[in-house]
Predict the structure.
Amino acid sequence: MNDGMFTPESVTWRVHADPSMLIGGMRALLVQALHPLAMAGVEQHSDYRADPWGRLQRTVEYVMTTTYGTEEEARQAGRVVQAIHKRVRGTDPVTGKTYSAEDPDLLVWVHAVEVHSFLIAYRRYGSGPCTDADADRYLAEQVNTATLVGLDPALVPASVDDLRDYFQSVDDELRPSPYSRDAAKVVRNPPLPLPLAFAKPIAWIPGAAAAGLMPRRLRAMHRIPWVPPADAAVRVAATVLTRAMGVLPDPPQVRAAKARWAHAEPEAA
């Protein structure tokens, strides 16, 4: 039975299987860090400095499960995240405000930045087309994902225009801090575990490409220098990297989902 959250015809399947997701994920972390309350939760309740790749891998696993797993697997992943969120609360040292990871405002921020980052990374570096209609369809599909962590669908931007309006509404809340700048340094230059030391010469590419997808003002908050020649060089390097990654086998979740759908097609007929 094909009871996944999304079908093979969805824009979500296409976007989330693309290697550009790596760049989108890093871009999301850079932007999310500029919300003081969201950054406080990461700073006080995660080990991203000691294990940035582990944190990224957990995010990837969640996205893969909610996209390509069965509906029950997706809902279970959401329940796990909600259980973790119950423990993430405290006081932000930058603003002095209290925060909770269960706060709908913070959940919408994290979701909106993540899907926006995946979308613009795909549109810049993805291997397939993405029309304006595709972009709106993707954001509408992702409302379903947002509900897995307890969000009311009515709060979630469901189109490009909705997303633009949302970001304008929270713009005044964004600000840099020593914590956000430390996080940006880790994202852009993550320490490589010994087995991946051979990749050091190209490890800078995804982080640089992620920074290149940020609005200039947000880049400046992180004190990331940027000039047009660098942008051109990064685009070329990132395009080469994502195309090379595109020849690798599908992730196991994608393979399992394709097999599940292929097995069920004769039954549907």
Summary: Residues 76 and 204 are 34 Å apart (CA to CA). The mean pLDDT is 91. The two ends are 13 Å apart (CA to CA).
